[in-house]
């Protein structure tokens, strides 16, 4: 049973992290609420976004097709070490500051349709 | 609660805290939120298998709370606590079905329960269901580290079990 769960988890992880682009729009959430939406496909110059909450600061860097947390004053730095988010379905998370960055395809589809 | 019991559980808590603080110095093996070796859980397992659920609970609560204070990471407390309590509950249930040579099995189930608990807490706190995406990689690491900490606990129970049980008095 343990082996089965292990295999399933490995398969699910590979699927999540290796599958092609989830979308070209990054959404930044703070405390579960949408804070900012960035069209990564339409960025001409790298953009720095500072997310300031009473819990701390995350400096997010958006470039053409990718986004990352450049620096943060959280204790664990997991969000910074996560590196660039460009195709993965797994979001970048800063748990101490309750900041989440995830990719979605919804807006770009809407844009294409409209 | 006898003084003997308080002293013994305090020694176990001190051991768990020491392991916890030392583990903080080891960099996370992967940039996955919540990934840890979880070596301090060895002590929780030893306490559970030699002394029973209440002593294990006391050691767990003291270690997690003091650990968050010493690490200066109070926000991690919620995730550690949810994960830790769920893991202990699962271990208490599986303990009846297992012998002392299968502590590592209980440890793997505990690790998986821990991962589930911490992700649940994170999803609730951030109200972001997308965080469940981190559960599979977290489970992979949890199963691997669970075997390791479980075997460590198994050896520890083999060597310390007699002393710890005798400390119950009688």
Q: How many strands, which pairing sense, and closed or not: the largest β-sheet of chain A?
A: 4 strands, antiparallel
Provide the helix percentage of chain A: 25-40%
What is the mean predicted local confidence, pLDDT of chain B?
Answer: 89
- From the 3D structure, determine the CATH topology of chain A: mini-chromosome maintenance (MCM) complex, domain 2
Low-confidence stretches of chain B: none
Shape designation of chain B: globular
How many DSSP-defined strands of chain B?
A: 0
N-to-C series of helices and strands of chain A: HEEEEEHEEH
Which class of secondary structure composition applies to the elements of chain B?
mainly alpha
What is the CA-CA span between the terminal residues of chain B?
A: 14 Å
Radius of gyration of chain B equals 16 Å
CATH topological fold name of chain B = Arp2/3 complex 21 kDa subunit ARPC3
Largest sheet of chain B: none
Work out the strand percent of chain A: 35-45%
Helix count of chain B equals 6
Number of helices of chain A: 3
Measured between the Cα atoms of the first and last residue of chain A, the distance is 49 Å
Helix and strand run of chain B: HHHHHH
The CATH superfamily name of chain A is: N-utilization substance G protein NusG, insert domain
Task: Jot down its keywords.
heterodimer, A: 114 residues, alpha+beta, mini-chromosome maintenance (MCM) complex, domain 2, 39% strand, globular, disordered C terminus, B: 170 residues, mainly alpha, 6 helices, 76% helix
């Amino acid at each position: 049973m343990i082996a089965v769960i292990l295999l399933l988890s490995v398969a699910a992880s590979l699927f999540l992290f290796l599958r092609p682009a989830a979308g070209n729009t990054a959404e930044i959430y703070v405390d579960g609420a949408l804070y900012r939406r960035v069209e990564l496909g339409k960025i001409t110059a790298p953009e720095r976004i500072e997310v300031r909450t009473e819990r701390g600061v995350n400096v997010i860097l958006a470039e053409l097709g990718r986004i990352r947390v450049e620096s943060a004053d959280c204790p664990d730095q997991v969000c910074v070490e996560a590196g660039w988010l460009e195709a993965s379905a797994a979001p970048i998370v800063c748990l101490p500051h309750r900041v989440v960055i995830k990719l979605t395809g919804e807006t770009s589809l809407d844009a294409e349709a409209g | 609660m006898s003084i003997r019991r308080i002293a013994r559980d305090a020694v176990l808590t001190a051991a768990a805290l020491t392991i916890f603080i030392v583990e903080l110095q080891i960099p996370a093996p992967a940039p996955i939120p919540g990934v840890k070796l979880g070596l301090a859980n060895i002590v929780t397992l030893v306490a559970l298998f030699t002394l029973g659920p209440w002593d294990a609970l006391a050691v767990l609560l003291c270690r997690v709370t003091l650990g968050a204070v010493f690490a200066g990471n109070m926000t991690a407390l919620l995730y550690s606590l949810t994960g830790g309590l769920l893991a202990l509950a699962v271990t208490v249930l599986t303990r009846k079905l297992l012998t002392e040579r299968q502590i590592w099995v209980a440890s793997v189930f505990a690790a998986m329960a821990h991962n589930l608990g911490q992700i649940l807490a994170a999803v609730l706190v951030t109200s972001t269901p997308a965080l469940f995406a981190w559960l599979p990689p977290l489970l992979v690491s949890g199963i691997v580290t669970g075997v390791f900490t479980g075997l460590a606990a198994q050896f520890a129970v083999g060597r310390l079990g007699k002393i710890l049980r005798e400390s119950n008095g009688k």
